Amino acid sequence: MDLIKQLRIYKTPDLETPKYQILKRTATYEVRKYSPFVIVETQSDKLAGNTGLNDVAGYIYLERTLGKKKIPMTTLVFTQAFDPEMSQILPDTNKENVSIRSVEGGFAAVLKFSGKPTEDIVREKEKLLRSSVLPEGLKPKDGCLLARYNDPGRTKSFMMRNEVLIWLEEFSLD
Questions:
Q1: Which residue range(s) make up the domain with 24?
Q2: Which of 9, 15, 93, 99 fits as disulfide partner to 75, beta carbons 3.0 to 4.6 Å?
Q3: Local structure of residue 137 (DSSP, 8 states)
Q4: Is position 174 within any domain?
């Protein structure tokens, strides 16, 4: 079974993502230390929806078309569970329904999966991740993040790279 998990095929665009270091790897999850990063976020009504993604992508397209800014398209979109925000890592914005926020980074437990990330699948993956880290003595914080690496309109669902992240209270290599 572990070999099959390692054979997962993902299509990950060669674009900017938050920097992290893998501190621990198990058959189910990784523990990563994320460096601080900046996100641009907008409101969305669903954890796995595309509304917020479309707002951010529309902003990038408009800024590029008008030649105001050369905004790099980034690969990663975060959606936060329990707080319906759509976040994409971008350098700047002045669109009214989009705001900029710094994420301090820290330790996160991360479960990778492929396919279309529906609400039910994301909740199932969050439960699996929580049930995997608790026996290890890790202290997960409330909520989770869905990290999506692909444009759902251009990537076959079986090749989509997704991750569920849960921030941890602390982590040490003992």
A1: 2-167
A2: 15
A3: T
A4: no
Alpha-carbon span 13 to 3, nearest angstrom? 24
- Per-position DSSP letters for 39-103, written without gaps between them: EEEEE-S-TT-SHHHHHHHHHHHHHHHHTS--PPPPS-EEEETTTTEEEE--S----TTEEEEEE
Residue-wise pLDDT tens digits, 58-101: 665 665 566 665 555 555 666 665 444 445 544 444 445 666 67
Instruction: Please tell me whether the overall predicted TM-score, pTM, comes out greater than 0.85 for this model.
Output: no
* For residue 152, pLDDT beyond 80: no
- Looking at residue 45, which CATH number applies to its domain? 3.20.80.10
- Please give the pLDDT value at position 135: 96
Number of domains in the chain: 1
Residue 35: how many CA atoms within 13 Å on its side-chain side? 5
91 in any annotated domain: yes
In a domain, 172, yes or no: no
- What is the Cα–Cα distance from 71 to 73, expressed in whole angstroms? 6
